[in-house]
Amino acid sequence: MTAYGPTTIQEIYVIDESLNPICLTMWGKFVQDECQKISEIIEDKPIILGTKISVRSRNGLSLSSRPSSTFTINPILPEAATMKKWADDNDLIIKSIIARNLTYPSAPLSSVGIREIVKNCDIAELIKGLQPMEKLKIWIEAKIKVIDLDQIFYYMSCVGCNKGTGYKYNESFVCMYCKNQGVCKPRARAYVELDDNTGKIAAIMFGEVAEEAFGCSAIELMENSGEEHQPYIKSVADKLSTKIWKIQVYADPEKLNEKRHKHFNVLSIEAMEDERNDGSSS
C-alpha cells in the first residue's frame, strides 16, 4: 500500500562477482512485465541491465525500481557475455549462496528469488560449503519413489503439536509435550527416495505434504495398512512415482551424520505442470 493506493511489488535477488546477494525491489508495472519474463527463465541465470535505479545503503545495500527505470534482460553486450560466462563457471558457488540465503520455507515457489533448482549430485558439495550450525534448504526437481512398501505410512499423534503418542485413534488425552488436552489422530508419514536422474537422496515426508503426494488422507492410509491392503499401497506408490515434483528439502548436516537421522525432510512439494509430467513414466 502506498499513499496513492495499493500497488504490487516483487523482490528479486541479484548477484555479481562480489558474490553478495542484493535485493532489488520491483514496483508496479515491472512486476507484470520484467519480473514475469525473469521468472520464466530464472533457471538459466539471466543477466539484467538496469538504469535509473534507486540505491539505498541503510541496513545494507538494496536496490529499487523507479517509474523512470529501464531493464534489459540478457542484453547483447560484451559485458553481459562476460557476466554470463562467470555465472556458468561459478554455478555451484552461486547455488550454495542461494541455498544459504535465499530459500525460505514460507515463501511461494513462484517467487523469482528462490526458484533455483539444485541437482542431487551437487547436494553433498553444498553441504560441505555450509558454515557451522548452518542448515540446508533447497529446491530440487525429482520423482518421489516408495522403496519400502512394508513401512507404516502413518503414526498416531497429538493434533496440537504432531508429536507421536501411544494412545488410540480418537482417544482423548493430555499430551506430555504440549500439555494440552486433545484427541489422538493419525498423521501421514512416508520414507521415500527422491530421484532426479543425477542422484538419489533418502527423505521423509510428514502430514499434509505426504497426503498431497499420495493423494489420500492419513485416515485412508491407516485404514489401508497391513499386508492385506498392500495392493492399494502399491497402486498409490506407483502413481506417485510417475510424476516429477518440485520439492523443497531441509537438512541439518550434524543430524545427517547420526545413524538415526539419515533422511532429508520434505518441506513442500508441487507437481510439475508441463510436458515433463505428460511424458514421464515410472
TrEMBL record:
Residue ranges of domain Replication factor A C-terminal in the record: 140-274
Domain of life of the native organism: Eukaryota
Gene Ontology cellular component terms for the protein in this record: DNA replication factor A complex
GO biological process: DNA replication; double-strand break repair via homologous recombination; meiotic cell cycle; nucleotide-excision repair; telomere maintenance via telomerase
MF (Gene Ontology): damaged DNA binding; single-stranded telomeric DNA binding
Matching InterPro entries: NA-bd_OB-fold, Rep_factor-A_C
Gene3D superfamilies with a match to the protein in the record: Nucleic acid-binding proteins (2.40.50.140)
Signal peptide: none
Cited PANTHER family: OS03G0429900 PROTEIN (PTHR47165:SF4)
Name this polypeptide is given: Replication protein A 70 kDa DNA-binding subunit B-like
Gene: LOC118349397
